[in-house]
Write a structure and sequence with these properties.
Distance between the termini of chain B: 36 Å
Structural class of chain A: mainly beta
Strand content of chain B: over 45%
Radius of gyration of chain A: 13 Å
Number of strands of chain A: 11
Structural class of chain B: mainly beta
Low-confidence stretches of chain A: none
Order of helices and strands of chain B: EEEEEEEEEEE
Largest interface: A-B, 22 and 21 residues
Low-confidence stretches of chain B: none
Number of helices of chain A: 0
Oligomer: heterodimer
Order of helices and strands of chain A: EEEEEEEEEEE
Number of helices of chain B: 0
Chain lengths: 116, 108
């Protein structure tokens, strides 16, 4: 079975950094693009970033461009999101998502709270 | 990027009634890579439908998805009390994947 397990969330002060991780299992991680999706309290779902299967291509939402960096380690089946210069607007649950042709899988999410 | 517009914003129905939710894309969705989610307060989104019309594991058959191209719909044949929630559509055929703004199904 496909499993995606996020970690690294927590409470952080504005301007600080946080690194999220997603551990993947149950599929050939290196074959597929991966995504980070977030949901702020009371809001809808928003794609934050995605990365191609080999890491050569990335995408960032305008709201995080220049502050967040997505990366992956295919040898360890891991996805990362380095989040710098965090603001209260980055407070959300962050989900790791895998798209594999017609299939799609989500992790359970990790909560990030940015507050002084 | 593909913009998804869900309608209506809120649907007020009674248990036992039929619910039809719509989602229109700003351009055709590649290979019908289209999904529907249910979300209840404090919970993660729950995948209901993938590939436009395939029910995810464990999803009751009162949920059905249809559509192609740029127009998709989710039908709940007879609303159960646990079905009152927010529903989101998503396309994942073209990068970046995008979401609709949600339809809230509330008890009338």
């Amino acid at each position: 079975d496909v499993q995606l397990v996020e970690s690294g969330g927590g409470l952080v002060q504005p301007g600080r950094s946080l690194r999220l991780s997603c551990s993947a299992s149950g599929f050939t991680f290196s074959n597929y693009a991966m995504h980070w999706v977030r949901q702020a309290p009371g809001k809808g779902l928003e794609l934050v970033s995605c990365i191609s299967n080999n890491g050569d291509s990335t995408y960032y939402a305008d709201s995080v461009k220049g502050r967040f960096a997505i990366s992956r380690d295919n040898s360890n089946n891991a996805l990362y999101l380095q989040m710098n210069s965090l603001t209260p607007e980055d407070t959300a649950v962050y989900y790791c998502v895998n798209t594999a042709y017609i299939l799609i899988y989500w992790g359970q999410g990790t909560r990030v709270s940015v507050s002084s | 990027e593909i913009v998804l517009t869900q309608s209506p914003g809120t649907l007020s129905l009674s248990p036992g009634e039929r619910a039809t939710l719509s989602c229109r894309a700003s351009q055709s969705v590649y290979s019908n890579y289209f999904a529907w989610y249910q979300q209840k307060p404090g919970q993660a989104p729950r995948l209901l439908i993938y590939g436009a019309s395939n029910r995810a594991t464990g999803i009751p058959d009162r949920f059905s998805g249809s559509g192609s191209g740029a127009d998709f719909s989710l039908t709940i044949s007879r609303l159960e009390p646990e079905d009152f929630a927010v529903y989101y559509c998503q396309q994942y055929g073209t990068s970046p994947l995008t979401f609709g703004g949600g339809t809230k199904v509330e008890i009338k």
